[in-house]
Structures are given as C-alpha cells and as structure tokens.
Amino acid sequence: MTKVSEISEFDLIARLEAVLEQNVTPNAESKIQVAIGDDAAVIGNLDNLQVVTTDAMVDKVHFVSNEVDMRNLGWKSLAVNYSDIASMGCKPVYSVVTLGLRTDILVEQLENLYLGFSDLLNLYGGELVGGDIVKSDTFFISVTVVGSTDKSETMQRKTAVPGDVIAVTGALGCSNAGLKFLLNNNLEKSSHFYEAHYLPKPRIYEGINLLDMGIKTGIDISDGLLNDLKKICAASSVNATINLDSIPVHEELKLSFPDNFREMAVSGGEDYELLITGHESLIKYISDSTKMDLHIVGEIEIGSGNVNAVDNSGAQISITTGGWDHFTEN
Questions:
Q1: Are 133 and 213 within one domain?
Q2: pLDDT per position in the chain (330 positions), as tens?
Q3: Are residues 195 and 305 in the same domain?
Q4: Does residue 225 belong to any structural domain of this protein?
Q5: How far is CA 158 from CA 83, 203, 237, 298, in A?
Q6: Are 216 and 278 in contact (CB under 8 A)?
Q7: Phi and psi (nearest 5°) for 221?
Q8: What is the CATH number of the domain that holds 20?
C-alpha cells in the first residue's frame, strides 16, 4: 500500500488516468479532443444547449472515509451530479473532479474511487477529462459535470402550472432507510437499502425521454420529495397537494419501518428519482407507451409556494419537511 505522500502528484495523476484508460469503454461519438494530461481539456462542438452542475462530498459530512467502500463512493459522487443532468432532460458529456487529499490517504483507495467513476461512466456515458488534486486536512471530492441537449429548452423548476399533475419515476425512502441502518451499524452490503443509499441510479434515460415527449418541469429528489416539490412551487409561484397514499414505496421499506415508512418516503432525501409535472393525459401517455415507472402523486394548484398533503380520503395530513439542509443539520 502506498500513501499519497509517498509519490509525486504527477505519478498519482498517471495512476488514476490509467484506471480510466483500462476500465472505461471508449466512446465512438466523443467530443473530447484533449483530456487528462494537458493544462486544460479541449471539447469539440456540443449540442444546442449545455447545462453545468457541481456537487461536493466531504469526509465526516457525507461519508466516513475509513468506513466507506471507495468504489461505491466514486459511483455516488458522480451519480449525484448525473442526477442533476437527468433532471434537466440532458445527457452527460464530460466531468472534472477535484480531490482534496490528506497525506495518509492511500493511492489504492483513490484507484478504487476511480473504478467507481468508471462503473458509472460505462453505464451512463460521458467522459472524465481532468480536474485538480490539492493537499487538504479534510478529504473531499468535488465534481463538475457538463451535459447537453439538442432541444431548444430543458426541463426546469419554473414551468409548473395549475392543473398539472405531479409524478415521480420510482419508489422513495429506501436511501433514507439505508442511512438509518448505517448509523446503527447494521447496514448489510447485500441489502436493497445498501444499494439505494450507496449506488443511486441517475435517471438519465428517463430525463432525456421525458423532455423529448414534452415534459417541461423537473427536479431530482435529492433533498426529499416535500423539500424538492417546494422548490418547484416557489420557482413557479404555485401550490401543490400530494396524496401520501399514492407515493410509491418499496415493500421492504414497509416491512422494515411499518410505523414511519410514509414519512421516510416524503422527507428522507437522496432518492435521486425525478419529480415532474405535466398535463395528466401526457403523463399517462408517457407511462403507457414507455417502460418508465411513473406514479402520479399529486396536483399543482393556484397559489404562491405552499405544499399540502392529504390521504386517500382527502383528509389533510400534517407532515414535516425533513430532507437535507447543510446549515440546519437536518
């Protein structure tokens, strides 16, 4: 095993580049002219619109470095950015990664991190073209991803209108279950909750197809269904009502948390499903004519940013926002 302090930055970059070269399938349609190894990456002409997103993961905030599987951490740190690209209806094109490294981090740990990047790149496309490495007292990973679309517009938060229905692309709450088991030191690697928490599946293909088929409003569920729906309502100056009994929930979540699975589905966060709005007939058409797992969970109404919850009987239900906020430590 080799600590990063025992080799040069140049040699470390060469070893990490080798992981990508040996494990990522080349893209025949690549727009990348120059990638890792020069002062800057060179990208050819992209589509009509480009979107840019960035996210960071910090030791002891998002993960614990001496406990986490680094390959899974590589997957997740890139996947959460890909999920933002998916929410705009775009495809990922290229990424850059900045690593802040303690001197005791092992090179082999970082090679496993890059294997996780490679796994995601092979499944969802895009290329990792560069970044930066700095010495840091706290280990962190900062990822920036550029995506593109040949359409004239992307899905956005500000386009919901009264009369739209609200839909999600899959079951919610399982990542939060994984976190709860993790904090209690009983999260099994073979469990569904482990995969939901550490290996989220960004809905790239769903996002592209939703935009293609006319959906204009979307966001990924990273901070919890309620919190992220509130962002759409605030941006669009509308209200929303969700039916808690319509929210898709995995059977294993119901069995493991019979008393609070519904709250976890509404407020848990890190599901990385897509939350969309659109005309009911269009949502049903997309669901019927594709393999997308769309579930209608509510409706957009006239208003100014509020979200209400009801059950199947129409009774009002009081719910807490939950989700993640860095500065309130929820």
A1: no
A2: 899 999 999 899 999 999 999 999 988 888 888 888 888 889 888 878 999 999 999 998 898 888 899 999 999 999 999 999 999 999 999 999 999 999 999 999 999 999 999 999 999 999 999 999 999 999 999 999 999 999 999 999 999 999 999 999 999 999 999 999 998 888 898 889 999 999 999 999 999 999 999 999 999 999 999 999 999 999 999 999 999 999 999 999 999 999 999 999 999 999 999 999 999 999 999 999 998 989 999 999 999 999 999 989 888 888 765 554 544 554
A3: yes
A4: yes
A5: 18, 20, 8, 17
A6: yes
A7: -90, 90
A8: 3.30.1330.10
Q: How far apart are CA 95 and CA 52, in angstroms?
A: 10
Strands 238-243 and 307-310, bridge-based pairing: parallel
Report yes or no: 299 and 240 within 8 Å, Cβ to Cβ: yes
Of the candidates 247, 256, 207, the one whose C-alpha atom is nearest the C-alpha of residue 224 is 247
> How many structural domains is the chain composed of?
2
Q: Is residue 320 assigned to a domain?
A: no
- Please check whether residues 16 and 83 belong to one and the same domain: yes
CB 274, CB 206: distance < 8 Å: yes
Spatial contact of 274 and 220, defined as CB atoms under 8 Å apart? yes
Task: Give me the long-range contacts of 199-202 (CB less than 8 A, separation at least 24).
Answer: 199/72, 199/75, 199/76, 199/79, 200/76, 200/79, 200/80, 200/83, 200/175, 200/270, 200/271, 200/272, 201/79, 201/272, 202/79, 202/80, 202/82, 202/83, 202/85, 202/86, 202/124, 202/272
Q: Domain holding 249: CATH number?
A: 3.90.650.10
Residue pointed to by tokens 């935009």: 211
Q: Give yes or no: residues 241 and 282 share one domain.
A: yes
Domain that holds residue 300: 165-310
Tokens of 26: 């080349």
